[in-house]
Design goal:
This protein is mainly alpha-helical and 299 residues long. The chain folds into 2 domains: 87 residues, DNA polymerase, domain 1 (Orthogonal Bundle), CATH 1.10.150; 175 residues, hpI Integrase, Chain A (Orthogonal Bundle), CATH 1.10.443. Helices cover 57% and strands 3% of the residues. The N and C termini lie far apart (80 Å).
Length: 299
């Protein structure tokens, strides 16, 4: 019993060290850290003595139990990172995760809205209700800048004062600057009064977050997702709208207009050009047009 408890305690210590490493040094989000912790909890052997066979058995059981390929891939990725950490810090001599294989995932294309659909959604004045007025501004911000929803919600209210650019901290604690187009500046100015009125009614005019909840607290990602989807539905968009679709729409439309993949990479804050190249698949209409105009046999 004592040896079992000792192994369990040692597992907990090693896992906590790794989770702290992800939080403090790798700057992973709390959701990512929680997912890794959940994946590591599935290992039913002393971590310092875990073998490749142990890990493969767990994956096989999860697969037989109906786990999705994406879940299995995430699980294996969590284990690889953890055992590499243990190996690098001298806790184990052999990394048991090196031979792990999971089902190959098909690469899904990002979903993007058409230019006309977004133009129709964003036209006209702000709605009368504060919730949907704010959702409208958030939609326009995400589409005009390509920000991630977490980046947008981190903005402070000082951007309402005629900002010509936004400086945000993205994944990996990487800073970037994105321009603010005239249309977005005008929408910020329009939003300033209803935001101030909403916070004044709550007695929270000192709130510095740009986007706020019904109670005047900083808006959460979950609530922002609901507000964006509900406003799009009320506006007759005809399909579910998720904030990340606006980022994909921005990337796709900028690429269509410029054909400059490197510029799109910088604007989106992608660490690797490979992440940006997926937008080339969305630009088939332009490529088809170029082919028709340039290739002799297409005429």
């Amino acid at each position: 019993m004592r040896s079992t408890e000792s192994a369990s305690d040692n597992n907990a210590v090693l896992i906590q060290r790794y989770l702290d490493f992800l939080r403090l040094e790798r700057r992973h989000s709390e959701n990512s850290v929680t997912a890794v912790k959940r994946d590591l909890a599935l290992i039913d052997a002393p971590l310092c003595a875990a073998s490749s066979a142990n890990l493969k058995t767990i994956l096989a059981k999860r697969h037989a139990g109906g786990a999705a390929p994406a879940s299995l891939a995430r699980m294996a990725s969590s284990w690889r990172g953890f055992f590499k950490f243990l190996h690098d810090h001298g806790h184990i001599e052999i990394n048991p995760s090196l031979g792990l294989k999971t089902p190959k995932l098909p690469r899904a294309l990002p979903k993007a809205l058409g230019v006309d659909s977004l133009a129709a959604l964003l036209q006209g004045p702000l709605p009368q209700t504060f919730r949907f007025a704010q959702a409208h501004v958030l939609i326009e911000l995400l589409y005009c800048t390509g920000l991630r929803i977490s980046e947008a919600l981190s903005l402070s209210a000082n951007v309402l004062s005629n900002a010509s650019e936004l400086r945000v901290i993205g994944k990996g604690n990487k800073a970037r600057v994105v321009p603010v187009v005239d249309a977005l500046q005008a929408r910020f100015a329009e939003f300033s009064e209803p935001r101030l009125r909403h916070l004044s009614e709550l007695g929270k005019v000192d709130q510095i977050a740009l986007f706020v909840s019904a109670k005047g607290a900083p808006l959460t990602v979950r609530q922002a997702q609901r507000d964006v989807a509900d406003h799009a539905a009320n506006s007759g968009l005809g399909q579910h709208l998720h904030p990340h679709m606006l980022r994909h729409s921005f990337g796709s439309h900028v690429l269509q207009g410029t054909q400059n993949l490197r510029a799109v990479q910088e604007l989106l804050g992608h660490a690797s050009i490979a992440s940006t190249q997926v937008y080339t698949a969305l630009d088939f209409d332009h490529l088809s047009s170029v082919y028709d105009n340039a290739f002799p046999r297409a005429k």
